[in-house]
Amino acid sequence: MSTNLLSTSDAVGFGGAVQEYLWNWDNQQLRVVYETLGKGSPLLLLPAFSTVSTRLEMGELARLLAPHFQVTAVDWPGFGESSRPSLDYSPTLYHRFLANFVKSVFNTAITVVAAGHAAGYVLQLAQREPAVFSRIALVAPTWRGPLPTMGATQQIAGMVKELVRSPILGQALYKLNTTPSFLSFMYRRHVFTDAAKLTPNFIEKKWHTTQQPGARFASAAFVTGNLDAVHEQSDFLALVRSLSVPLIIVIGESSPPKSQAEMEALAALPGVKSVVIPGSLGMHEEYPAEVLEAVQDFLFSA
What we know:
The protein is of the alpha/beta class and 302 residues long. It is 42% helix and 20% strand. The chain has a 9-stranded mixed sheet with strand order 1-2-3-5-4-6-7-8-9, with helices on both faces. α2 packs across α3.
């Protein structure tokens, strides 16, 4: 496993040094792209898992944090500019990746800001290896994928995942579910709250992310719940109860009802700091300044 600096022509970022981390999994070498900006103590930004997941959704937050930290944002394997082979994407893969990446790139305990489904992986790593993180901020933390949230059984979700992975029909289904109009609909439904920000240019960039070769494989695993780090709310709450690292949770006041109830259950646990701000599941991208304001005292405290 190694890291290499990429030229600015190789990748499109948010103004930092773009690098690649070469990581081996299942007898394959995966190219994982990450970007670093600023100086100071290290802070890791983990984007939410989604069909449009990319480190660029953390870009403005990274720029706001860069005067105070050395900020690193990463494209998860299977998403963004990282490799997207037709692997069987699973929690085991992402658990191993996060642990390996943190140990390879950083040589001290780090602050982490994780959005959405990244929360479960951060909490489980912190439980196994408490010295890895010095502080944890979870922004709109979730633990259950879209299809299970809608009531799909594990069997049905598994069938859908395999269908999307299939060569011809799977490609067609994926194309239908990543049209610009459908992406715009999903953003309006539970990701952004200000429709004026969903400009044609914004949606086109998101669409472009979904059309990269191999994009459907990790996306199908997420949507069907096959990237859920836990499968019960009680297990998610237990991870927080066992945590020895300071934790803050940022909740969007317009989050979907089920997701908001689960975030509030986390916030109600002893020792957990929480803040409610405008936004929904994509508030780290839609309202980065408000997210920073919500967590800055927590992040900057001694």
